[in-house]
Structures are given as structure tokens and as C-alpha cells.
Amino acid sequence: MDFLKVLYIDPGTGGMLFTILFGIFGVLVFSARALMVKMKFIASGGKATKGNDKKIPIAIFTDHKRYWNTFGPILDELEARKQKAVYLTCSEDDPAFSKKYEYITCEFLGEGNKAFSKLNLLNASVVLSTTPSLDVFQWKRSKDVDCYIHILHAANGILMYRMFGTDHYDAFILSGDYQEREVRQMEELRDIAPREVCLCGIPYMDGMKKRLDESGEVPPHERTVLLAPSWGESGILSKFGEKLIDALISTGYKVIVRPHPQSYTSEKEMLDALMSRYTDESKVIWNKDNDNFEVLRQADILISDFSGVIFDFSLVFDKPIIYTDTKFDIRPYDASWIDETPWTFKILPDLGLELNEDNVGDIKTLIDKCIEDPSFKKGRDKARAETWVHMGESTKRSVDFVMQKYDEVLAAKAEEAKKAEAERSSKNKNKRKKVATASKGV
Question: How far apart are CA 354 and CA 360, in angstroms?
Fold first, then answer.
């Protein structure tokens, strides 16, 4: 029995070890595939694709079309500046393909390893991306890329990525001072040389705020509650389900439920059961709109968990939230390295009240307090000041920084070429001297 106790590993630690071992196995398998791709690349004369014949000045990579709200404004700004760039996406139906750009080239990379195989041989001066885990798993740094820049796609901390998610980026576009502190903490802990950070803001939030300002006031309506959870075992629908929906119906308020898109696939059985139970639209409306703007605009309060929509709703639409105690397991994330509560969770009490097993039956009281208590307005102002700098200027500032890094790369290349030419000239001069000296000796 004592022997078995020594061997015992708690489920959480066991899960982490399995994740690490699976990741190592994945790296080994992909490395073998990458080696084969390189061998084919060399055998073909060093021309993998036509795109590698010339160096791309600025490349933007996205692993999914859902990040179009981040990259769309940036591409529009590059187009307005007549700056050539290549947009690389893993979504065949990415909105970029419907745009009529003159200076921006849009390319579908394929999905999974097919996309990473191309990225790993990319020839570009600067790469901008919101995708983490560069040089950790399948996505390797290309020797022909001079600078990788990471941009956040949400108003939260950079420590909320899986471990080592941003360790191999060269620079960062961020939106708050606390994010820069997080970068510096990781650099010190992992002995990473300090990288450049530029506080630019959040392009997609600026776009959403502009759209909101242009849409005008919401007409008078009954008090409306939006339930918009994430998916999975810790999500609201899995955790509270019928108990919460019944409590919301009992308030007499208009109730809109907007499941996470992944719920329709990953927890279909649970979701189908709920949707078939609540079919009366006078009590519950199930929202499936591709664009969440209108439903966020109509709602007076949001109930969510760890979904990023919390910050969209509170900071852009300036409305209160109710958040759940999800018992989020922080161990696989960079935040677990720091002995403090991540900003993403620490700020929540300033934005609204917590929903838990004890108070779910009294949801009406929570809703009314959150909407009517002025302290939450102050909390939203505080959060906005901490995580959304340069409001309205983020796209311009982000593109300015990308262009700055591109100019630095060009300048460095020019300096290298100048030094190389000087060395060649010096060697040729020495050769001529030797020849002249030998001629005199003869």
C-alpha cells in the first residue's frame, strides 16, 4: 500500500503530465514531417512556392477567420498607406477574400500541418500574428523571417496563454501597462532577453465602439438579460443549466441565450436537450447570429463565465456583468508562474457580481443590483483605463509599429550589405597589393 501511495498522482497533475508528454510526442512527429518537407524543398532546387522567390515585406498570419475583427482594420490601414503585405489564413472562407485590395494579397494556407509547413519556410521581413505557441509545437520560427510580432485579440492579460505561448516572439503590440509588466515577469523568470513592447490599444474594440456610436440610442425596451457562456464542463450551461434558465424566466425579464459556437459541436447532446426544453420564445430566445453586435447592444446585462465577451460588453457597451465562479484551472497557463491573481480574474468584482450555487436562485436581486449600483460604472471606467489605452487610435498606432519594425529590418539588412561590401573591397585591395608586391619582386 505504501508503494502505491508513492506512485499516486492526483488527477490534475496527471492531466498536466499527459498534456506535456502528448505535446513532446507531437513535436517529435511534426519535426520528422518538417525534415521531410525540407528535404523535398532542397531536392526541388530550393523553391517551395512562388511566394518564397521574393521576400514578403509584411506577412499577417491568422489561424481562424474569427480574428478578422482584429486584422481587418490593420489590413485596411496598410492598404490606405499603399503598403504591400500578404494575409495568410487557415480559413478558406475568411472575410478577407471578399475584399478588393490592391496592395494586400490574401492566401489560404490550408489547415493544420499543411499550413504550418508553409509558415515554417516563410520568407518575410515581419510577421504579425495573434496565434500563440510560436516555436513550441508545430509552428516553428522560419530562418527567413526577421521579426515576429504578437498582437492580442482581446482585452485581457498575456499570461492567459498556455505555457511558453509567447516566449519566442520578438515584439508585442499590447493595450495596457499591466500586460507589459507580465511580459517582463516572464522574461525574468525564463531568462529571455527583453523584447520591444508597444502600447497601441485594441483595434477591434475601437471598431466596435465606432459602430456603436454610429448606431444611435437603443429604443425603450423591457429589461433584457443575455446569457452568453463559453463551452465545456466549466461553462455556465454545463454547470447550472436548467436551474439558471428557470431562475431567469422567473424574473419576468426578457431572456436571450447565446451558446458558444463550439457548444453545438462539442456538447451537442446537452445543448439539444436544453433547446428542446425551452421552446417558448416569450420566455427564452436562442440567439445564433454570426455577428453578436446587435444582441450585445440590446442587452442590459450579460451573464457569462471566462468568455472574452465579458470585456466587449462591459468596456465597449458600458454595461454590467454577472460572472460565474468557474474554478478555472490555471496550472497549464503562464499565469501559474506568477504568485498573484491574473488581471483577467482580479478585475471581475469591479465589473459585476459573482454567480454561484448559493445565489443562483436569487438571480433577480443580482441583476437589479448590478444594473442600478453606480459603483460598477466606476469599475468599468477603471478597467477601461487599465486595459484599453489610446482609444480610437489603436489601428494607426499598431500599423505605425509594424512599419517601424519593417524599416528597422531594412536598415539592418542595408547595414549588413554595406559591411559585407566593405569586407569584399578590403579583401580585393589586399589581393591587388600582394599582386603588385609580387610583380615588383620579379
Answer: 10
- The answer to whether 48-202 and 208-387 have equal CATH topology is yes
Enumerate the β-bridge partners of residue 353.
322
* CA pseudo-torsion sign 11, 12, 18, 22: positive
**DSSP category for residue 162:** B
Dist CA 362 CA 204 (whole Å): 35
Cross-strand partners of 255: 225
The domain covering 208-387 belongs, at the CATH homologous superfamily level, to Glycogen Phosphorylase B; (3.40.50.2000)
The domain ranges of the chain are 48-202, 208-387
Write the CATH number of the domain with boundaries 48-202: 3.40.50.11720
- The Cα–Cα gap between 32 and 18 comes to 21
Q: Which pLDDT tens digits describe the chain residue by residue (442 residues)?
A: 443 344 444 444 444 454 455 445 544 544 555 455 445 444 444 444 444 458 999 999 999 998 999 999 999 999 999 999 999 999 999 999 999 999 999 999 999 999 999 999 999 999 999 999 999 999 999 999 999 999 999 898 899 899 999 999 999 999 999 999 999 999 999 999 999 999 999 999 999 999 999 999 999 999 999 999 888 777 888 888 999 999 999 999 999 999 988 889 889 999 999 999 999 999 999 999 888 999 999 999 999 987 789 999 999 999 999 998 757 778 899 999 999 999 999 999 999 999 998 999 999 999 999 999 999 999 999 999 999 999 999 999 999 999 999 999 999 999 988 888 888 887 777 777 777 676 666 5
